[in-house]
Amino acid sequence: MPEPVGIRLSPFAGALRRAIRERGATLERLAEHLRDQGTPVSAATLSYWQSGRSRPERALSLAALRHVERFLGLRGGELAGLLDAPRPRGRPAHRPPSPAPMSRVWPDARSRRRALHGLRPRDEARLTRLSIVSRLEIGPDRTERRQWNRNILRAEQDGVTSMVLLFWPDAHQPPPTLVPTRNCTIAASNRDEDSGLTAAELRFPRPLARHETIIVEYEIEQGGAVPATNHEQRGRMPTRELLIEVRFDPAALPRRCEQFSDIGGRPLVRPLTWDDSYTVHALGLDVRPGAFGIRWSW
Q: Within 13 Å, how many C-alpha atoms sit on residue 227's CB side?
């Protein structure tokens, strides 16, 4: 498969081209697979992607890219992490999006200030959130057993060194414990004793260069014996792909389960049913700042 003449392949196009060649796949077979998955992309468009003439930008194309990665035997986010920032449409924008007002995402201003005291979330606006996956496991006693999180981030400027998390316990629960597991360490943390709201600065192994991507993973351990009733993410910056998963023990299934979001003051609710592994999920693409998650009743 010769390289296209006169076009310098982007990292995304080059990686896609190599993966297709190494898998021995045809564009027609890949296009057929995407149609079967409900995210159709034509063979002609796939050809443009691998030659660098175009790239996936819209929500449907980004959803299809997840199936492309699986079909080619790649890790989730491996191709998506190589995409440049989306090209502006309409009026040109000269600045990255600013964080949403903190009060929109975390209404309790006093608890927020106390939790963030001494921390500097200076890098927040310099990181693009390409993918966030948060998976929660519920035990037979209806309590949280394990929460695993993965963030795929891209630096938009040189020198980005950290990210800041805000998280809180369920009512009448002890403080949760943050456990870094990949590409991060806890540089500093704070907890507001009145509300339980906790802030932590996760430092990367080294400063990131502009357009460099990083995969950050961590777990949140929640003790106590109070049944869990929701799992959500709150963010001040847009997220290209946000996946929330909750897996229930077959001995303790909820009566009702639903996806919810509260973004820009427009609450939305959608009922969910679990799959063969007793897991429900909520997928958001191009998610704006706000709350997004899953809740259930026993």
A: 13
Residue type, 65: L
Confidence class of residue 84 from pLDDT cuts 50, 70 and 90?
A: low
Beta bridge partners of 170: none
CA distance 198 to 111: 9
How do residues 224-250 score in pLDDT, each as one tens digit?
A: 678 888 888 877 778 899 999 999 999
Could you give the CA distance from residue 39 to residue 21 in angstroms, rounded to a whole number? 22
The first and second tokens of residue 76, run together, are: 């989730």
Comparing C-alpha atoms, which of 173, 178, 175, 176 is closest to residue 225?
173
* Res 188: pLDDT: 80
Q: Is 152 exposed, middle or buried (0-12, 13-18, 19+ CB in 10 A)?
A: buried
**pTM of the predicted protein model:** 0.62
Q: What is the pLDDT of residues 117-139, one digit of tens each?
A: 666 666 677 888 999 999 999 99
Q: Angle CA(110)–CA(113)–CA(119) in degrees, nearest 5?
A: 165
Nearest to 42 by CA among 67, 61, 57: 61
Amino acid, single-letter form, for residue 66 = R
Burial degree of 28 (CB within 10 A; 0-12, 13-18, 19+): exposed
Single out the residue of 243, 102, 202, 97 nearest to residue 156, CA to CA.
Answer: 97
What span, in angstroms and rounded, lies between the C-alpha atoms of 267 and 272?
16
* Domain 103-297 -> CATH class: mainly beta
What pLDDT was estimated at residue 225? 74
* CATH 1.10.260 residue ranges for the chain: 11-82
Q: In CATH, which of 1.20.950, 1.25.40, 1.10.260, 2.30.29 is domain 11-82?
A: 1.10.260
Give the Cα separation of 287 and 222 in Å (integer). Answer: 26
